[in-house]
Amino acid sequence: MVFRDRAEAGRLLAEKLESYRGDPSGLILALPRGGVAVGYELSVSLRLALDVFVTRKLSTPDNPEYAIGALSETGALYLNPEAVEAFRLSHADLETIIDNERQELARRQQLYRHGLPLAPIRDKTVILVDDGIATGATFFATIEAVRKLSPRRLIAAIPVAPLDSLPLVRNRVDELIVIATPEPFMAVGHHYHNFTQVDDAQVLAYLKAARQSESAQTASG
User: Fold this and answer.
1) Exposure b/e, 86-125, CB count within 10 A at least 16 = b
2) Domains plus CATH for the chain?
3) How high is the mean pLDDT of the chain?
4) Which of 74, 108, 111, 140 could bridge to 145 as Cys pair (CB 3.0-4.6 Å)?
């Protein structure tokens, strides 16, 4: 299956998550940037609040697309030991990579939330969404971080993923919703007709539109 764009992927996920529509404890947590476009569609369709959870992929300067791990905004760290060994990274190398990503995490937290804290997660039904996973490093780090914040239930919502990554996700969440598991799996973007980059301005626009939609729904009862 090839999605038209992230909006279509979000609408298809919403159909599979219909039972959570209007859940008073429900919260959509989207991974910026691409996941926010998917999360927005879920938020509007399911009438649930939308927030971001900032996690950064860790990679080497020579291989920026290959994830050796990921770091979340709460400090949760996931490392792929095989990748670390393959790239012969020393402790000092890893610290440099992690410190650089900490700076970007802080920038995005300030920008996307205007200095406000992460939405409360304890006892919430959290739907964690991205536009797809490949190695899964970023998603795994996010799951571990969110788990430590004590949600009542954690659901992973993923439009597209490789089959071999799914058992690792399924073992870490209460429920897994995935639409497409193509074989062979290539880059996430190969499974979308339109996979243009989502920039910071668009993330802010999605978050604003989701808040406006939530306010309108509340006002209308």
Assistant:
1) ebebeeeebeebeeebeeebeebbebbbeeeebbebeebb
2) 6-55+120-215 (3.40.50.2020)
3) 93
4) 74
Pull the structure tokens for residue 185.
């799996």
How many angstroms separate the CA atoms of 199 and 221, rounded? 33
Beta-strand (E) ranges in the chain? 26-30, 49-52, 55-58, 69-72, 77-79, 125-129, 153-160, 175-180
Contact 126, 50 (CB under 8 A): no
Contact criterion met (CB below 8 Å) for 78 and 69: yes
Q: Give the C-alpha separation, 203 to 37, whole Å.
A: 7
Residue-wise pLDDT tens digits, 30-83: 999 999 999 999 999 999 999 999 999 999 878 887 889 999 999 888 898 888
